[in-house]
Amino acid sequence: MMTERELRLSYSVRSLPPVAGSEKVQRYFNTMSVFNCTFNRTAHVDTMIVPRIQLVSFANPAVSGQFQIVLSLFRDRNFTTMFQSGGNSPTVQVKDYIYFKAAVGISGAVLQASQCWATPSNNPNDTVKYMIIESGCPSTADRAAIDVVSNYQSMEVKAGFKSFVWVNTPTRSIYIHCTVSVCLSSISNCTGPVCGGRKRRDLGFDKDPKIYSVGPVIIETPCDVPGVCDHQCSMDDQYQAVCSCYAGFALGPDGRTCVESLYEPREQSVDSRSNAFILVMIVLMLGAVGLIVFKSRNGKKITVREP
């Protein structure tokens, strides 16, 4: 740019971080430095011009490495008792709480779980789902059964929910999925949403959330306990076991055992006696009628007196 007295020059230096392979994230910020110089168009000098050279250093916040997030299952709200990771899937009784924790081992990182949900299969896109966290807050669909202990606060996301059985679905498996992002508190505002009010989100550094899954947890009902009922078992609306017996048996005083019923055979005996009595009466009536007809044919007058 040139004016009547000055000549102004502007230089822009841009630094673009490399993105290796097929990665969708970068670990450095784009930077641009702008230099402006102004020169007088007319100058009178009587000495040698000594240029002034200065090295300027720029400190950009940066992070290197990988974000390794682990999603684990726990039995208690203190997150001290983990589910055993043996060959068999862990089991819980229906209505017991299932707790899960997502953790990242980077100092200054804040985990943000925008969505967490449960499905009957290991497919996070299963159409059958139970929402646990929505927009960073406990789901209002079943709020009384959801316990979000920590989210948008530290290197860990901690939450839990009261276990259940799926409706019209034969499986008793529960898989848990979470959409998790990483925010660096040193360079971003990692404040979470205001639950119950106006929502606000700032995912900060890592704006490419990933889905993490864990499971399954197998739900047991009271009817799965060996010996809970002699014959048949069902559950009431409070998920309590209700026993019943096959035909010919009655439920014992303990509400569990079945004993042979004595009433049904007696009813059958009474019915058979009644049938026999009716049959005898029919035979006697037929005999009386036959006797009357026989005597009438022999010419004898039979007078029947009314009582």
From TrEMBL:
The record's listing under InterPro entries reads: cEGF, ZP-C, ZP-C_dom, ZP_dom
**UniProt KW keywords:** Disulfide bond, EGF-like domain, Membrane, Signal, Transmembrane, Transmembrane helix
Which Pfam family name is an example for this entry? cEGF
Q: Where are the transmembrane segments?
A: 276-294
Which protein is depicted? ZP domain-containing protein
| SMART domains listed in its UniProt record | ZP
Instruction: Look up the coiled coil feature and give its residue ranges.
Output: none
According to its UniProt entry, this protein's organism is Ciona savignyi
Which residues does the UniProt record annotate as the domain ZP? 1-202
